[in-house]
């Protein structure tokens, strides 16, 4: 499509034409064209979006995989509780696959679930190996942190040389991400630091005993550790040049994308709208997640976590493929991806555009 003021205005007034709102807004901004009414609010997008109901008006049954302990998935619960899935013609059953992201991804690839949201730096290696899951959107940025005891004297990445970092498992997103950061800082993430695995609930104890000097883990745990003045944040996946990088991604069963595109489109749009809802009304998202939160945490505690993440960053299209390719290059640099993997070809292979006409 040739982009001009006329086509942009028509896109802004009819999202059912297949142009997603983020691409529309980015393109409009780049061309210096004002969007209709100045900006598109949550309400206006919700009103203009066209649901894709199943034939005969029946709701399409979907199984959606979640990790119930991950607060960054709060928008999924928003979509369920606020009727967003239903608006898009979907009857979604949320299936909790516990703390194992691998189990969640395998469930999608094997057809036990139709889709899910997971961490890019956990999923991309499996997708390189051929899992039949397609990425259709980014979810948000943030939620992975590297913290250290103040008593360790560690305040920056370069001071981790020769130190031991605690992780929940040896393929964790935290290990992958901070390996990338260490590499960018000129350290060898294999030779210059030691990665030591502990059950998640024992990471703090290991730090207190001096067995590790830093911890790489995710929210909400890592966020709340920083409420204790004995901890300091050394880095996160929202700094050191990653401020505008997606962290979690929407993955759908390959067969769903290929054979039931309308359903894949509806599910992706519903999840993006739920992200908008979370940004506009974080208290609703916190309430939706509260049953899965640590028992001593309040709604406002959870709002704090959500606001520390970038739930307004949910790239699609070329923007998302660029971010996937960057991750692929970086994972190749730290020997997680095979040297033979071409980052751009990989991004083209694993991303599926279900939002364009």
Distance between the termini: 10 Å
Q: Looking across the biggest beta sheet, what order are the strands in?
A: 2-1-3-10-4
Helix content: 40-55%
- Derived from helix and strand composition plus strand pairing, the structural class reads alpha/beta
Number of helices: 16
Q: Which descriptor suits the 3D outline?
A: globular
Order of helical and strand elements: HHHEHHEHEHEEEHEHEHEEHHHHHH
Give the total of beta strands: 10
Percentage of residues in strands = 15-25%
Q: Unreliable stretches, pLDDT < 50, 5 or more residues? A: 1-48
- Mean pLDDT over the residues: 84
The largest β sheet comes out as: 5 strands, mixed
Rg? 20 Å
Polypeptide structure, described:
With 357 residues, the chain is of the alpha/beta class. Helices cover 42% and strands 16% of the residues. It contains 16 helices and 10 strands. It has helices at 5-13, 21-31, 42-48, 74-81, 84-87, 101-109, 120-128, 173-184, 203-208, 221-225, 254-259, 261-280, 282-289, 299-308, 317-333, 343-350; strands at 60-66, 90-96, 115-119, 133-140, 144-149, 164-167, 194-197, 214-218, 231-236, 248-253. The strands form 2 sheets. A 5-stranded mixed sheet has the order 2-1-3-10-4, with helices on both faces. Strand 6, helix 8 and strand 7 (194-197) form a beta-alpha-beta unit. It is globular. 48% of the residues are buried.
């Amino acid at each position: 499509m040739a982009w001009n003021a006329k086509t942009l205005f028509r896109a802004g007034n009819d999202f059912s034409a297949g142009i997603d709102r983020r691409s529309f807004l980015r393109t409009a901004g780049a061309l210096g064209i004002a969007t209709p009414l100045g900006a598109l609010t949550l309400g206006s997008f919700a009103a203009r979006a066209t649901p894709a109901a199943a034939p005969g008006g029946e709701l399409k049954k979907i199984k959606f995989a979640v990790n119930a302990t991950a607060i960054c998935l709060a928008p999924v619960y928003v979509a369920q509780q606020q009727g967003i899935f239903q608006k898009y013609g979907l009857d979604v059953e949320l299936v909790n696959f516990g703390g194992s992201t691998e189990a969640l991804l395998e469930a999608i690839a094997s057809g036990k679930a139709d889709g899910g949201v997971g961490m890019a730096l956990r999923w991309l290696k499996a997708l390189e190996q051929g899992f039949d899951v397609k990425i259709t959107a980014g979810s948000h940025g943030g939620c992975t942190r590297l913290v250290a005891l103040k008593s360790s004297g560690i305040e920056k990445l370069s001071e981790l040389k020769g130190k031991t970092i605690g992780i929940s498992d040896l393929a964790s997103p935290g290990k992958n991400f901070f390996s990338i950061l260490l590499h960018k800082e000129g350290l060898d993430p294999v030779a210059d630091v030691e990665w030591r695995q502990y059950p998640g609930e024992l990471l703090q104890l290991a730090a207190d005993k001096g067995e590790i000097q830093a911890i790489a883990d995710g929210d909400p745990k890592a966020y709340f550790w920083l409420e204790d003045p004995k901890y300091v944040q050394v880095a996160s996946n929202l700094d050191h040049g990653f401020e505008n990088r997606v962290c979690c991604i929407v993955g759908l069963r390959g067969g769903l994308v290929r054979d039931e595109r309308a359903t894949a489109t509806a599910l992706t749009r519903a999840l993006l709208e739920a992200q908008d809802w979370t940004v506009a009304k974080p208290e609703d998202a916190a309430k939706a997640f509260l049953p899965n939160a640590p028992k001593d945490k309040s709604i406002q505690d959870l709002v704090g976590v959500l606001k520390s993440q970038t739930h307004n960053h949910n790239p699609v299209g070329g923007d998302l493929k660029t971010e996937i390719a960057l991750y692929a290059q970086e994972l190749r640099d730290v020997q997680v991806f095979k040297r033979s993997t071409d980052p751009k070809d990989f991004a083209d292979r694993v991303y599926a555009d279900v939002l364009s006409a």
